[in-house]
């Protein structure tokens, strides 16, 4: 297990390099100019060129990439072109906010998904099954931003029950689990939760249906175990796969919540990326994508290890 | 009984005082949802365009000259700010003398004086200065292109030097905000370098403005409290909270759910709903131009003034206004009629499709040989209003006079970049016009940078490479007119000539719509990009 862990960590290095390089090149290929984050469009040419030199944006691309890489290795993600703030300081607060949102959304998605999937798998072919599958399909099909806006219109604008935007009463999420803060979390978390909920429902339904047909379930029934007892056995067998799915969904939510964070003005990595893309803020873009990619790699590793721990049949070479 | 009578008498006695109290007792916190995606920089030279100046420039800092934002009825003019008066040296017209206001203090308690002015000029123009900040150059040097240096004459008098005689300098100086040297020195002492010191300054800025920063959460909120030591009329609101909400629907929802009290630029579609919920919608003429800027290169059909005039005449601007829910002003030039720079153009911008067809036919474009134009536009962007639907409306309008319009829709940042490259550059991809909206409150922004042949790319925004010695001469004349009335007259001649030559396709002026809670009182929307945040308060 130890060597497996080391090998997976070593694998992350070329992945990080590749992600950094691809991201760097994609931003360069895209039309537009990072200098627009620093100077307005009406800037005279000489000022533009001077500022370009000051920021090293006049250097050849491989040199720029090399400088960036060297700094990253030393733990320095650079400074935002737009604000001059340290990328890491912005990124760390954004990651915290997004992580909080993603965790709550994943928890909602996992609980609802397991419940619906469990019921659907247990009562296959029934009305419950059809309803659960219908909800799951709707969950993965409905556009995030549309659902977010609908929830805002109902719960914020019409009913005035929940805030429409922001991460907390004072601006920051602050990981404060009181109702004042959690109110801000409800709508974006529910919006984000629908996709993992749909995916987990379908996955769990399939697994449960498959397990219910296996011989050991018949044996358990033959031994006179109660329905609840059998269900617990089935859930234990289904858990590793469900966990793998939700783990990947957490990674997806960390990087894929751009639209939801924009709709709710949630100051996380999605909003940070969105702004960085529009401003061509290269250091923020590179730093954020790199850190998210590394997070995804780490998350995969954790999920793998947890799967192994939960299911002894899975052995790592 | 006696006590009740006493209380009643006391209440009645207090009534007149309460009735006249708003200005004196007005207070409260105004929460504003900005269109900006981040808090504009607080280092003394905001980014995010004029929204930055509006929210972290003018309220936190002051400049030598300032805009008069007190009236909604007339175009804003330049008034004394931290300088009480100024004049050009009659013997050297590149030297301006500014007399500074006495008794002004920065938020940190240090004194504003001539040294502070010299220090603030050096921060962006003197690369050898220890506090030189390249970040601030971009948003400063571009807005005062002729300013070169400053020199202290005495504690309250300073000389500013320009590269050439330039009567526009006092207007340009509204963009140079005065930051506190003492506060920067304090941060520098605790920072490894000047860049880090500016970063620390931005977190705890100090200017002389009517508000001071009390809380700054990057990307999330900026809280400002009224500065009671302000030299001028003090703010009525106790606190202002700025929240970046770039998405229009999120801003609207935030206002409707009482999370903010004021939003910038509500979507036109949301205005009826906002009105129905009792919100106040404000708008006013704004020095803003939403145009097509023609290319004057050799092979461009827009080189022909008849074609430019025809297109100006073919547009149904009232129809466009209806499309935008009334949230635009119909332009008759870069500045509106009645403005001191409007002049007496002979070409009357209006809707006259028959005349447009006649001019096009005269220029050789007929139904058998239609004119095809390619225009670079963006799908969104700051100040761009509703670019896709507006341009599609124009496309349909022009089709009626036999002009086919093809759009090259590119991202806003890319359109900006191309704007600097010019229409002969490969990035224009053969476009005959570009659609970049711009501010027109300053003669340099409004006219000079587009019509001066020296401003052709890569120098500035003469995207179309317009080159006419008559216009160069008129611009020089305006720059050399140091009497304000003479300068306005020269600018009026320049503007009239620009309209006669149809140097733009003038399509719309934005009217800066804002939506706010009915609890906000005292707000004045001037004919400007800016607002005076000292005036509104919340009831």
Automatic annotation (TrEMBL), chain A:
<keyword id="KW-0813">Transport</keyword>
<dbReference type="Pfam" id="PF19300">
    <property type="entry name" value="BPD_transp_1_N"/>
</dbReference>
<dbReference type="InterPro" id="IPR035906">
    <property type="entry name" value="MetI-like_sf"/>
</dbReference>
<dbReference type="InterPro" id="IPR045621">
    <property type="entry name" value="BPD_transp_1_N"/>
</dbReference>
<keyword id="KW-1003">Cell membrane</keyword>
<feature type="transmembrane region" description="Helical">
    <location>
        <begin position="185"/>
        <end position="204"/>
    </location>
</feature>
<protein>
    <submittedName>
        <fullName>ABC transporter permease</fullName>
    </submittedName>
</protein>
<feature type="transmembrane region" description="Helical">
    <location>
        <begin position="284"/>
        <end position="306"/>
    </location>
</feature>
<keyword id="KW-0472">Membrane</keyword>
<feature type="domain" description="ABC transmembrane type-1">
    <location>
        <begin position="95"/>
        <end position="307"/>
    </location>
</feature>
<dbReference type="Pfam" id="PF00528">
    <property type="entry name" value="BPD_transp_1"/>
</dbReference>
<feature type="transmembrane region" description="Helical">
    <location>
        <begin position="131"/>
        <end position="155"/>
    </location>
</feature>
<dbReference type="InterPro" id="IPR000515">
    <property type="entry name" value="MetI-like"/>
</dbReference>
<feature type="transmembrane region" description="Helical">
    <location>
        <begin position="9"/>
        <end position="30"/>
    </location>
</feature>
<comment type="similarity">
    <text>Belongs to the binding-protein-dependent transport system permease family.</text>
</comment>
<feature type="transmembrane region" description="Helical">
    <location>
        <begin position="242"/>
        <end position="264"/>
    </location>
</feature>
<keyword id="KW-0812">Transmembrane</keyword>
<feature type="transmembrane region" description="Helical">
    <location>
        <begin position="99"/>
        <end position="119"/>
    </location>
</feature>
<keyword id="KW-1133">Transmembrane helix</keyword>
Automatic annotation (TrEMBL), chain B:
<dbReference type="Pfam" id="PF00496">
    <property type="entry name" value="SBP_bac_5"/>
</dbReference>
<feature type="domain" description="Solute-binding protein family 5">
    <location>
        <begin position="77"/>
        <end position="426"/>
    </location>
</feature>
<dbReference type="InterPro" id="IPR006311">
    <property type="entry name" value="TAT_signal"/>
</dbReference>
<dbReference type="InterPro" id="IPR030678">
    <property type="entry name" value="Peptide/Ni-bd"/>
</dbReference>
<keyword id="KW-0732">Signal</keyword>
<protein>
    <submittedName>
        <fullName>ABC transporter substrate-binding protein</fullName>
    </submittedName>
</protein>
<feature type="signal peptide">
    <location>
        <begin position="1"/>
        <end position="26"/>
    </location>
</feature>
<dbReference type="InterPro" id="IPR039424">
    <property type="entry name" value="SBP_5"/>
</dbReference>
<dbReference type="InterPro" id="IPR000914">
    <property type="entry name" value="SBP_5_dom"/>
</dbReference>
<comment type="similarity">
    <text>Belongs to the bacterial solute-binding protein 5 family.</text>
</comment>
